[in-house]
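Quiz preparation item.
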């Protein structure tokens, strides 16, 4: 397959530079982040930022280079620098206990918020005060699966490029526009001006998701605002919404975690928007 035979040294400046991307300040300075595993690398190979390939470098063990030969070949064809590496190098670069043998260095890929608004989105997830990177990545994956047009991370939320967030999204970072660092007030005002209804997800909300669906109020453009994992949305953020909606708990569970609630809410909107003649509740048993 033409892969260079010499393994890169663990002391190589390229390895050191990639390893530093585990820290946010270096990611921000270099505008690069790590994508780990065959699925994320495969998606990165196909992605472009302003016409340029998103994947800049690829570190691969000999075994992984053989197993994922088509991915490595596509990375090389896209212009990425390919480094064969030993398990010790992948252990240095990986954030997982059992590395999968592929680690890519990628360009930042977030989109300007104004571009998202200009595209007239119909379904948006807004992460306000979300601090756990795994949750952020999982919500991004849910939004992608539900067919959302964009995700917005407010300035009070976790770094989009945190390695845990990238892993949790399982490649969805590369599938839909994501704006970062947007103040929640600006996010809400911009989306409202674009004709998007703002729905704040809150377990203590006055409006019930089932009732919203049965009333047929969710067929239009909507943006779901999701809050902090521990304390939800502050009152000032809830006050910005057109409706504060709770997911009904039909059983004895105390609550739903953030990612599960986000999936239910996003799919509810997606179903309502796609229904030709109304829809039944997605949460009824």
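Solution:
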């Amino acid at each position: 397959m033409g892969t260079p035979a010499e393994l890169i040294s663990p002391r190589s400046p390229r390895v050191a530079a990639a390893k530093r991307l585990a820290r946010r300040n270096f990611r921000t300075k270099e505008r690069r982040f790590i994508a780990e595993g065959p699925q994320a690398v495969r998606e990165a190979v196909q992605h472009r930022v302003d016409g340029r390939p998103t994947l800049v470098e690829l570190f691969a063990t000999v075994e992984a280079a053989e197993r994922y030969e088509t991915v490595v070949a596509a990375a090389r064809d896209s212009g990425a620098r390919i480094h064969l590496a030993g398990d010790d190098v992948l252990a240095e670069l990986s954030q997982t206990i059992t590395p999968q043998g592929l680690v890519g260095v990628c360009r930042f890929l977030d989109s300007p918020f104004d571009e998202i608004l200009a595209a007239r989105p119909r379904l948006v997830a807004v992460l306000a005060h979300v601090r756990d990177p795994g949750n952020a990545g999982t919500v991004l994956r849910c939004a992608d699966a539900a067919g959302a047009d964009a995700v917005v991370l407010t300035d009070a939320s976790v770094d989009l490029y945190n390695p845990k967030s990238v892993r949790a999204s399982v490649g969805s970072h590369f599938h839909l526009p994501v704006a970062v660092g947007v103040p929640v007030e600006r996010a809400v005002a911009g989306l409202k001006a674009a004709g998007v209804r703002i729905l704040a997800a809150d377990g203590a909300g006055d409006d019930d998701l089932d009732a919203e669906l049965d009333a047929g109020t969710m067929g239009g453009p909507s943006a779901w605002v999701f809050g902090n994992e521990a304390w939800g949305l502050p009152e000032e953020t809830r006050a910005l919404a057109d409706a504060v909606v709770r997911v009904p708990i039909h059983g004895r569970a105390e609550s739903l975690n953030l990612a599960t609630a986000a999936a239910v809410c996003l799919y509810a909107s997606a179903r309502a928007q796609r229904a030709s003649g109304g829809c039944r509740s997605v949460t009824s048993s």
